[in-house]
Specification:
single chain, 254 residues, mainly beta, two-stranded antiparallel sheet, two-stranded antiparallel ribbon, 1 helix, 18 strands, elongated, binds 2-acetamido-2-deoxy-beta-D-glucopyranose, signal, TNFR-Cys domain-containing protein
């Protein structure tokens, strides 16, 4: 029996045209050519390139070389390791120790922390602060705002030593720096925290006093100009007295 040659010929012409537009390597096994792009029938996505041979149409759910998309390798990992995305491919990592995938894929530890048993661990004296989006290792041994932990806050009459809030000496306060200061004579915290005395003035009894009327090198102490470099009662600052047997020289009791 003879075939009608005309439909056979036109089918052949159509097939050759489709191949020509997408190239002879268009998706295996089940694809079509649309607008010069080789489209997979199973996924509706473009066929995956396969260098040197025909492009192909993987099952993105099960193909370990095209996991979710072309060229995404799902690696079969040794036991104890997991497959985590690394750019466009997957790599095997040990999530117990990998500081870029610590406990979870993509959960990275701060640079100064290490991954131990799937947890980011900071150096001694530091705590892991922040959340899963951004974390850092904070110093928590001497910081009165982070004393012993990220949220350890010392009251203002206490400061932080070895991760514990300890009382300042009587009359002293803590102003967020690491030391207890005396607000009666501290030029940066005069009378209260963060009340700095300006250039040319000094904190005397909790008030900023100017040196107006005094010579250079002199400081006004309770209304009088004093040479704090050699005054035994105001040695290096107002009301700093040298003990008996010592003289003030160069602002030091010697
Ligand atoms: C792929 O889909 C096209 C368009 O629906 C269809 O013409 C073609 O026969 C399909 N290919 C295969 C191998 O089934
Ligand atoms: C302060 O005392 C020093 C040391 O005796 C002296 O060299 C200096 O001139 C004095 N300054 C003033 C302003 O008196
Ligand atoms: C302090 O100064 C006095 C008076 O100038 C002097 O007699 C004494 O020896 C000095 N003391 C010291 C420790 O330098």
């Amino acid at each position: 029996m003879l075939l009608n040659p005309l439909p056979v010929l036109s089918a052949l012409v159509f097939a050759v045209t489709a191949l020509a537009a997408c190239g002879p390597s268009c998706g295996f096994p089940d694809s079509r050519c649309e607008n010069d792009v080789c489209i997979c029938n199973n996924s509706g996505a473009a066929a995956c390139p396969n260098p040197g041979t025909f492009s192909y149409c993987p099952n993105f759910d099960t193909d370990q070389y095209a996991c979710g998309s072309c060229s995404n390798y799902c690696t079969k990992c040794p036991s104890g390791e997991n497959s985590c995305p690394d750019g466009s491919v997957y790599t095997c990592v040990n999530m117990k120790t990998d500081s870029l995938n610590c406990g979870l894929c993509g959960q990275s530890c701060p640079t100064d922390a290490s991954c131990v048993n799937g947890q980011c661990v900071c150096p001694p004296g530091h705590s892991l602060c922040g959340d899963s989006h951004a974390s850092w290792c904070a110093e928590t041994m001497n910081d009165p705002f982070r004393c012993g932990s990220c949220y350890g806050f010392c009251e203002r009459d206490k400061t932080c030593r070895n991760g514990k809030c300890v009382p300042c000496q009587a009359g002293f306060i803590q102003c967020g720096n690491t030391n207890c200061i005396n607000p009666l004579n501290d030029n940066q915290n005069c009378g209260d925290c963060y009340q700095a005395c300006g250039e040319g003035s000094n904190c005397i009894n909790g008030k900023c006093e100017t040196n107006a009327g005094c010579g250079s090198g002199q400081v006004k102490c309770a209304g009088s100009c004093r040479n704090i470099s050699n005054d035994n009662n105001h040695c290096g600052g107002c009301d700093i007295k040298c003990s008996v047997g010592k003289n003030c020289s160069g602002a030091l009791c010697v």
